[in-house]
Amino acid sequence: MTGRRLSVLLLTEGTYPYAGGGVSTWCDILCRELNNVDFHVVAVTGNPTTTLKFHLPSNVRSVRQIPLWGSEEPSEFIEPGKPFGEVYLARQATTSDAIRDRFVPVFQRFLDEVLAQRPADPSTIHGLYLYFREFEYRSTFQSMEAWETFLSTVQRSLADDGVHEDERPSLYDVTTAMRWLYNYLMPLSAPVPRTDIVHSTLAGVSNLPAVISKLEYGTPIVVTDHGVFIRERYIALSREKFTPFERKFLVSISSYATSLLYSMADQVSPVCNYNRRWETRFGAEPARIRTIYNGIDPAVFVPKEKPERTRNRPTVVAAARVFPLKDIETMIRSCAIVREQIPDVHYIVYGPTDVDPPYTQRCMALLDELQLRGNFDFPGFHSKPHEIYHEGDISILSSISEGFPYTVLESMACARPVVATDVGGVREALEGFGIIAKPRDPMGLAQGVVELLQNDELRQRMGHLGREQVLLRFRTSQAIQHYLESYSALAHISEPAFGLN
Amino acid sequence: MDSTETSSSGSAIELEQAALDVVGTIGKPVDSWAVAATLESLGYRDVDAVDRYRRKDLFELAGDIFGLISSGRVSFVAGTAAAAPRRRHGKAARFFRAYLKGAVTAMPMLGQIAAILLLRYSLWAWVDFTETQATVVALGTILSFLVTGGFIQSIGREGIRYLGATNYALSERACWNLVVEGTVVVVVVGGLLFVADILVPVYDLRLMEVSLMYYLLLSELWLYSSVANVLDRPMAIFAITLAGVVPVMVVMEATKLGIYFAHWCGMSFALMLMMAYTMPLFRSVAKSTAPELRTTQLPRRPVRAYLIYPYFIYGFFYFLNLFIDRIVSWSTPGAEPPPYLIWFRTSYELGMDWALLSLVLTIAFLEYIIYEFSYYQIPAQKSVDCARRDDYNAFFRRFHRRYLVGVAVIGLVNIAATYFGVVYFRHFSQVKEVREFFSDPRTFFVFYAAAIGYWFLAVGLYNNLFIFTLSRPEFVLKSIIPSTAVNLGVGLIASRWFHYEYGVLGLVAGSATFAFLSTKYARSVFRSLDYYYYSAF
């Protein structure tokens, strides 16, 4: 089959095109560079929003937003062109009988699979999707039948598991869990467009439409789970104050979705080999895993002199959103240690500070506590990332979880060596061309920073080698070529029909 | 270059230390995956698992650590989710605060009553009104409530809903949209009535113009006041409506332009103050919207209409229910037919206003009850095992019964207090107005009946508060629409069969129906409160 444009359903959550960050950048590059491919984006967001963070290229044919929260009438966003009369009629058709006969059996099966952590049967999710094609989502979830099914299934699963008295859920826990389910399963209420390929950017509940696409149309699935969703989910849930039941429920539904997506995927393409460890354990067949490293454009990220304003001061830059997974607090503590040897050291963190305001406040309080206001700055988001790294002598990354971070590659391309934590695929990019420290270890980070700032020869050598490494292995064109080959092979469409810029 | 090399040993002590690291970070892990993820986030790597712990990889290490923790050999801090102890005020303090808050919402009305008693003028009333003037003003006033009632309720619903979701900008947009839409409807209805009166003269055109002017200004005042209510500013409404009386006095005392013009000046002044107050205030509140929410759009018009129509209908029927007995009574033909289709009866209105005082005092108590309902809701949910929801439902059924009795008793006490409080003024019968007030036994009859009607109404409002809180407006409509029909039917029969003041029996019967039906629906909600609480999203 040749001569026609290939189409890809791109599934995102909390990223492209409504938010910035590494995954969004990756999506933007993918869509922009593969300009002979048509993309249909289904973007799961937190709240409804209309502000695009990216200028969409013309080959992004459609964007459907699915806001999980903050909308009283989700169909407004999920199917914006649909006359409300149709929604109303679907609601009228969603009677108690319809819910009891058509929804409850499949919902029951779904809950059994999730709560008992049994292997997921793809037809269950498909059954839910088919039901929501006919009946209304919100009124189904608000029905007495749905609530009674959930409550009784939870109670049965507790009896089966012999849960300890202290860990039995309260009524509040169960209420909360069912409301979460209403929010998290919302992507199943949206129609899935037919495409040649479905590319999932996160192996979580929000990307289950990939499974639907495969079951409905036989569409091949590619999964690029940048930070390994399930691992990040575990980390995030551990930090939150949930009851044992709430936490277990969220873990169960997340691992249900992850396993289903990995096992159904035709190709799992982690952005670094490190991520394979989790992916194979959650159901990805090793033979179907093909690592595709992120790439950047070395013509954009080029080495330049430091600007006047930072030239006379040892400067460490970072490009990071201020939120817990970036562990900015450890970065701040490392700054305090570095200052003992280099009193005028200056850390500059470029990135939005409004992602997690309480966390940002904690960082600010730590700056005050350590009296670092003169050494550490948060200037906010910078719209031209290629200009960030020149301001510094080196750059730093303190994350406790990463996929294959662009910031490391970008800094390397700008010949600014990186001190980074040993997370995700950082080692695969940086080993031999930067300094790697243990996560949550301010001393390790500080030692790396001091060493690079004080040893000019080492800094310059690593900067030079880093850029060479990018040119050799981490160019955008290489990454894009790999995705193109993958799409082509999976869709059985020969490459000449589409191509690179 | 690598600063992460580790020493190798792999003792049980080190394993226990790693386990302590994990439980110190996350408490008791859900499973071994949680341990693996935590270990990674703590800086443990495969190389550490091999070199230091003699395990194949990090996942094997995680499995062993999870086993260690599960076996109880490593203690953990249980219940990381335990909520911070809530500062609990005493019941008396809660009662005082909430009742006071409820009472404050009645301040604008009480302020107008005080103004008329002390100054002889209020924003739209005057002690020396003739019956013609009172008819004109009463019609304008009633019409303003009927036309804006749905909008007032919708503004409250949409405005507060979006505020609750911290989307202040959307709340602002929703409120102003409704104010504009309400204004359009007010103008259209006014225009249609005016044209209708030209085509089929029911009122003298001059009186119709005056009445419509009152209607227009009051309608706008209600619309903007309801926005101030969304912003929870009852004292501002009180102050502004009171300030509006000043121009009334000035015009009346300093000019000969008459009471109509004076009232229009006062209402326009109050309206401008209300606009000048609410608009910048809402603007500044909206500015604190989180950046990611700022671009959120309101749903399409049909969707909005669908979402708010029950509240709109309720608002209309609420005011219709409140005023329909007056319309019925004042339109009763008698020995002396009224000069116009609807004719103001002073003694009837005085009885109604007197009884209304008792309702206001009782409604303040409802504020306290709904506060208590919310106060106990989450702790009760959290304290009940999911298998014992009947206990939870039973707790709130008792709550509903207890406070139902409370509302009934407080309502009766308030009726008695209002009766004796007003009757006390008989001691001042040397004052002409006081003498006139007590001169007509119909005032007493209307008071007795209306007080009972309002007592039932308070019970209905009590039930509906819960139903509204649980986002089930359909139940409220099922009680208010039939009760309005009963109000109309009984009022018509009684007023035409006996005498005009018997129209008030419509209010009694309608409100009794409202109380009965709403209690029935509230009880059914409380029987399955676990479900209704869950589905109130």
Features:
heterodimer, A: 501 residues, alpha/beta, 6-stranded parallel β-sheet, 20 helices, globular, B: 537 residues, mainly alpha, 76% helix, elongated
Question: Would you give an account of this structure?
Answer:
- The complex is a heterodimer of chains A (501) and B (537).
- Chain A is of the alpha/beta class and 501 residues long.
- Helices cover 47% and strands 12% of the residues of chain A.
- Chain A is built from 20 helices and 12 strands.
- Chain A has helices at 22-33, 75-78, 84-93, 96-115, 122-134, 137-141, 144-161, 171-184, 209-217, 229-239, 244-264, 276-281, 308-311, 328-341, 357-369, 406-413, 426-430, 442-454, 456-473, 476-491, and strands at 6-13, 37-45, 60-67, 197-200, 221-223, 267-268, 315-319, 346-350, 376-380, 394-397, 418-421, 435-437.
- In chain A, the strands form 2 sheets. In chain A, strands 3-2-1-4-5-6 form a 6-stranded parallel beta sheet, sandwiched between helices.
- The radius of gyration of chain A is 24 Å and the shape is globular.
- Mean pLDDT of chain A is 93; it is low at 496-501.
- Chain B contains 20 helices and no strands.
- In chain B, helix 1 (12-26) crosses helix 4 (58-70), helix 7 packs antiparallel against helix 8 and helix 15 (389-423) runs antiparallel to helix 17.
- Chain B has helices at 12-26, 32-41, 46-51, 58-70, 91-105, 107-119, 131-164, 168-199, 205-230, 234-243, 245-254, 258-287, 301-330, 346-383, 389-423, 432-439, 441-469, 473-497, 504-527, 529-534.
- The longest helix of chain B has 38 residues, at 346-383.
- Mean pLDDT of chain B is 91; it is low at 5-9 and 78-85.
- By secondary structure, chain B is mainly alpha-helical.
- The chains are: A alpha/beta (501), B mainly alpha (537).
- At the A-B interface, helix 3, helix 7, helix 8, helix 10 and helix 11 of A face helix 2, helix 13, helix 14 and helix 20 of B.
